[in-house]
Amino acid sequence: MVEFISRNKVVLLLFGLWYIVGSFSVPAFFAVGGLSILLLWRKGMYFEILLGFFYILILSDNLGSATDFAKVFKNAYIVILAVIAILDRRKFPPVNPLLMYFLPFIGVALISLAFSPYIFTGFQKTLSYVLLLYTVPQLFLKSISDRGPAIVKDFIFFGIFLIVFGYLVQFVDYNFAFSHHGRFRAVFGNPNGLGIFTILIFGLAYVSREYFKELFSKADLRWIFITILLAMVLSGSRTAVIAVAMFFIMTRFYRLSPFLGFIFFLSVLFATELVTQNLVAIVEAIGLSDFFRIETLAGGSGRYIAWNFAWDAIQDNFWLGRGFAFDEWLMNKNQEFLSDLGHQGGVHNTYLIIWLNAGVIGLTLFLRALILLFIKASKNLSVAFPILWMVMFSIMLEPWLAASLNPYTIMLVMIITMMTDPLFQLYIRGELTSLQTPDEQAILA
Predict the structure, then answer these.
(1) Alpha carbon distance 108, 122 (integer Å)
(2) CA angle, residues 405, 246, 359, in degrees to nearest 5
(3) Quick check: 32 and 19 in contact, CB under 8 A?
């Protein structure tokens, strides 16, 4: 951690300046932030540009008014990334298979906008998803090509740094770092946001360790995984704890046999309903009533209300949805009714959100893209499917993968890029010294 701070102190100071300026004036931040990115671009500091985008996404997740600038600027930032990727396209790897897999889903999402009550916002959200899938793999691979795998380590340590920073802030402002009756949230909007973050930073660290055996020392790995575990527990995120536990169990099975791993996953699916019906009794029996907040388990934390409401709405638009952001429009329109039933917030389920927005056709194409990518990834890495099941469990209870401009989807995109990109695989095997070489098309052919 000390090495990371020392190596990146200028960038960390810049990010601190962004926060200070943005908390005082949004227009001033647009000037300072825009100029900063331009200077980084001129110096070819693509990793710092990508890290800055990640930082803005994290700040945008915070509910405090001091980070309102990030909520606005993230929309401009993704456009800036697209401009950089287009203007500097000769410097970037020419192949971006990730976006290609999702194009059929994007096509259905665009068609669904014809039925949208929120068409302008829906189009913006669709476009931002496309831009994220296009730009992040390009910038990520370019950064590795320029600076080597050390940038992956720095990205992970930046996430760990923010968790530690969030914990230390409690001694100055307890309510900034802790909320919801003493649950840790670090710099995120709520403890569940931190829980999602721990799942994905864990996945990124695990995949990076598999690919770059010499990148992390034993002390690095202890620091990373202990920090993640403590953050997970202090956040009280049941989803995160169960998802990571599933990952470790799945990993053992998949290393013995992919077939055994798949059978175990099917067993978990079939057991889900039985466990759900008896969850309160199970939690009480193992003595974890306080951690799992037994009083909210009994009531479903309001999620079941939202899910039932969303399912009823899906029946009216079963095959094709009503475009990105329809779920937000629907829940906001019925906010008072849902509040009376005991629910506040959104749908809290990525599958249902995509079904609402793009219909069952869109949902099928989205899952098809995700599964095909992980099938491809499994040929390169044995932990690919355990990561997929961990993610699929998380999005069953959280909405993050239905949106692009959050600090979670970007990490999954980076994980998938490492596991599937053909140039990256050649780079790892030593067949390419760079991810951008004059004869790369001949090599790929």
Answers:
(1) 13
(2) 45
(3) no
Tell me the C-alpha distance between 57 and 75, whole Å: 10
CB atoms within 10 A of CB 161: 17
Max intra-chain CA distance, the chain = 64
Residue 255: predicted pLDDT = 80
Distances in Å between the alpha carbon of 414 and those of 50, 193, 408, 410?
A: 11, 19, 10, 6
Q: How far does CA 363 lie from the centroid of its chain?
A: 18
- Among 6-15, 21-30, 277-286, 344-353, the minimum mean pLDDT is found in 277-286
Beta strands 183-184 and 178-179: pairing type?
A: antiparallel
How many structural domains compose the chain?
Answer: 1
Give dist(CA 304, CA 373) in Å, integer. 30
**Rounded (10°) CA dihedral 375, 376, 379, 380:** -120
Q: Is the CB of residue 371 less than 8 Å from the CB of residue 240? A: no
Asked if 246 and 389 count as a contact pair (C-beta separation under 8 A), the reply is: yes
> What is the number of other CB atoms lying within 10 angstroms of the CB of residue 299?
12
For the chain, how far is it from start to end, CA to CA, in angstroms? 42
Residue 220: count other Cβ atoms within 10 Å of its Cβ.
19
| 3-state helix vs strand vs coil in the chain, percent to 5 | 80, 0, 20
Reported as a single tens digit per residue, the pLDDT across 421-430 is: 988 888 887 7
Domain that holds residue 63: 2-444
For residue 195, which of 301, 86, 353 has the smallest C-alpha distance? 301
Q: What percent of the chain has pLDDT over 90?
A: 69
Report the pLDDT averaged over residues 91-95.
80
User: How confident is the prediction for the chain on average, in pLDDT?
Assistant: 89
Is the pLDDT reported for residue 310 higher than 70?
yes
pTM > 0.90: yes or no:
yes
